[in-house]
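Hi F.,

I've been meaning to write this up properly since the lab meeting, where we talked about keeping a consistent format for the predictions we share between groups. The idea is simple: the sequence comes first, exactly as it goes in, then the structure tokens exactly as they come out, then a line or two of notes. No screenshots and no reformatting. I'm using this chain as the first example so we have something concrete to point to.
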Amino acid sequence: MKHRNAALALLLGVLAPQAVNASELLYIYAPDCAACQQFDAELLPSYKKSDEALRLPIIKVSLADWQAGTHSKSACQTQPVNVTPTFIALLNCKERDRITGYSQEELFWMAVHRIEATMAAQ
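Output, unedited:
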């Protein structure tokens, strides 16, 4: 009986809800957007492997899907998106910050670090 209870407790521990990472970085893009293509080539692969991506995972969403409301995150509380790329920092499905546009890797990283600091303080 003792082993059975231990096995049940272990199973319940595995199946119990774990802490959900409620912070996300939505990346709203358009296929014909030159700045989006630049971001995809210069930064997206390294971002996905970064420590920042562990804390603020990126979710790529086309502008068409976003505006049509067909993406699961479209129901989150955000301001309208009119420019691509737009990066929306979500915390519990509410917009907390955003980055509009992309020009340089260094500026993007500075903005991500600002977002992380702001979200950590909330």
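Notes:
The beta strands are 23-29, 58-62, 86-91, 94-100.
The helical segments are 2-15, 34-42, 44-48, 51-55, 63-68, 105-121.

If this format works for you, I'll send the rest the same way.

G.
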